[in-house]
Amino acid sequence: MTDLDTTSHTVPVQADVPTAVTLDDATLRRVFADAPADLVVPKDVGSLFTARIRTMGGSGRSPLLAVWIGALFGGVLVGLVFQQPLGWLLASIAIVVAIVAGLWVHGKAADDFFDRYAAARGLTHIENAYVSASVPLFNRGDERSWPRVLEGAIAGQHAKVAQYTYTDISYDDEGRRQKTNFHFTTVCLRLPDAVAARFAGVYLSPKKFGFGAIQDKLAHDRKVELESADFARRYTLRVVDSQDDIALYELFSTSFVHTLSTSLTAFWEQRGHDLVVWHKGHESEAADLDRMCLEAWHVLHRYLEEHR
After folding, report:
1. Would you say residue 64 has pLDDT above 70?
2. pLDDT value at position 11?
């Protein structure tokens, strides 16, 4: 597993943040400062997967798809006709082969998509890397992994876009080991020293049920209510106990709260220097990855803007 450098590589941050809903070429070029002339990328992993299935083994045809269908239906038909262990064994083998082949092709399509997306955004695609950030999200679970990391300049700052998975391990009554995976996509940035000194820990997440004072005591943080009903319907805002309230309310200005309540949806965890904007699930569409980076730009800009 590659251990990525977590030091802050800072370049000038864009002064003007575009409208939250904008994702045209001009905006993308400002978000991705090192992007090449050609911004065109495949729509998603699924489109490349479909294209590989249709073209593999023949020009413009779909022989692999035909093999899959033939193996699946042929194997099942053998099992139904003969009703014998050998027939069901052949059916099982056909199904397993089809599944393994599908996973292999999908994996190759995913590699291709992220290579091409990274190249079109001026980023570097790294597989099975380790991303360090002192936020609660990266300390969850019994196991943690970062299958794909895209590294480079985002929002005028050295950043990492990462697929992240943490795993809870449990055992049933018979001692059998069970794993439960939780998938996220994250944009990881680092704040300058002076900014980190003002914001000890800020966590903005989707609206969820809390346990009041009990949760505050156990988690060593506290819930903060802002004077916006729209914001309260969408988000839960928590901060570490030592967070300065004056700095916090300056960060969540009236205009920023309005933006978060209407045109921008952004979830993040920030502890000291580390700022991690996140979505649930492993994003595999270009537009979703672009929007996450745009969201990260808004959040980062607000931290830096308030400090200035």
Report:
1. no
2. 44
Where would I find the beta strands (DSSP E) of 86-137? 124-130
- In contact, 50 and 197? CB cutoff 8 Å: no
Stronger pLDDT, 307 or 261, i.e. the higher one: 261
Least confident of 1-5, 30-34, 223-227: 1-5
Measured CA to CA, the distance from residue 299 to residue 96 in angstroms comes to 46
| Burial readout 45-56 (b: 16 or more C-beta within 10 A, e: otherwise) | beebbeeebeeb
State in Å, rounded, how far the first CA of the chain is from the last one. Answer: 38
Strands 124-130 and 143-154: antiparallel
State yes or no: pLDDT of 252 exceeds 90: yes
Check residue 251 and report its DSSP letter: H
272: left (phi over 0), alpha (psi -120 to 50) or beta: left
- Asked if residue 80 has pLDDT above 80, the reply is no
Strand order through the sheet with 221-223 = 2-3, 124-130, 143-154, 157-171, 177-190, 274-280, 268-271, 201-206, 235-240, 221-223
For residues 165, 169, 172 and 178, what is the CA-based torsion angle, rounded to 10 degrees?
50
Separation CA 297–CA 288 (nearest Å): 14
Residue type, 216: D
**Predicted local distance difference test score (pLDDT) of residue 155:** 85
Place of tokens 């996509």: 185
CA distance 48 to 221: 44
Nearest-angstrom CA–CA distance, 245 and 71: 64
This prediction's pTM: 0.82
Answer whether residue 48 shows pLDDT above 60: yes
For residues 148 and 165, what is the distance between their CA atoms, to the nearest angstrom? 10
Task: Copy the structure tokens of residue 145.
Answer: 């992994």
